[in-house]
User: Fold this.
Amino acid sequence: MSKAAEGGKLKKNLFTLFLLVVSGAMVYSLPYFRSYYYDTFLIEFGLNDVQMGALGSAYGSFAVIAYFLGGFCADRWPARKLLTLSLVLTGGLGLILLLRPGYWGLFAIHAIWGITSILTFWNALIKALRSIASSEEQGRVFGLFEGGRGVTNMVQSALILALFGVVSKKVNAGAGLNTVIIVYSVINIALGLLIFFFYKEEEFKRDKKALINVPELKRVIRMPETWLNTLIIFCSYAMCCSYFYITPYATEVFGATAIIGAAAGYFSQFVRPVGCFISGFAADKIGASKVCAISFCVMIVSMIGIICTPGKMSLIWIVIISLAGVYASMYACQSMHFAIMEEAEYPIELTGTATAILTPLGYSAEAIAPLIAGYCLQTWTGEKGYKVFFIILTVVAVVGLIANLIWLARTKEKRQMLHAKK
Assistant:
């Protein structure tokens, strides 16, 4: 492919990118919507709080396994078929909720959602995103993807909530919940069909004999870049899983009102698209790993700002500015998690095998960070507990920066080659 043709690859696939962005947000609407309509969901399905928590555990437990096996599925079968299957099945299971299945039926549905939204979806999605952009556009495509997911979630959550409110008021809360279920389910099924008909996938050589290609897996495991990438993902995602602890810290230590605290939390969703879009285009200019390194630096400085600011309401503005830095940097870094793969020796056809290692280990921060936070807050009450946890997060970010700097040193030659193409 010529340089000109290769350089314009993403532009030719903008509609496909749009479908992948919206799908990447909406496929998780059904597994998580119960949290946003918690009380109504409890009443309509006759559950208690313990059972409600068990539904989340069912989904999360299957998701952890699915992150690993999903990588091999992505290299074994076409992404177009996997994405279509995932979205249609996710939507179809959603429609079953209209029948008000009992607790064990709900448990099974949430467990299967852990398969349809992760096993056959996430790794295939990463592979599809890599394939629709040239090697010089990887930062841009992942920046647009993560930022676009943020915008999609902002828009859809506001519209669906308004729809729920209108139907609940005119009919009842049960009808409102049914409306939410129907809309989310139909959208998922429609997206699956659109991807099937409009995503033109490149053909790659696939091993049809075994799900796990052992030689390819060994090749990926032996690459130091695999473990550096995993560490970068883990250290930045730890912040993504923990930033909401800053809200109760602001209300408890600085005396901020509940409204200001909630606003500080929602503020993250407005900063997310900005951070992702800027980082995506910057990555195509200076390199994805350099954007990650800058993001870690901003993250560290911002956390130090939060930790060191005295707990006076008159100084809350410093915390707000520092929060903006945390939000922008953590989402900028998140959008580069898989864009930096282009700087190592990962061909497109090995994307699934590589992400089979990167995603379960990197995203394990989601299981570890809350446990550490809980321990800190229980061991040290009040301000000290929060600060100890924030110091731990800052140290983790420093570790991520170190891994990032080692990555820059190891991939210098490949990055120079990529820069020469631009």
Remarks:
- Residues 1-5 have pLDDT under 50 and may be disordered.
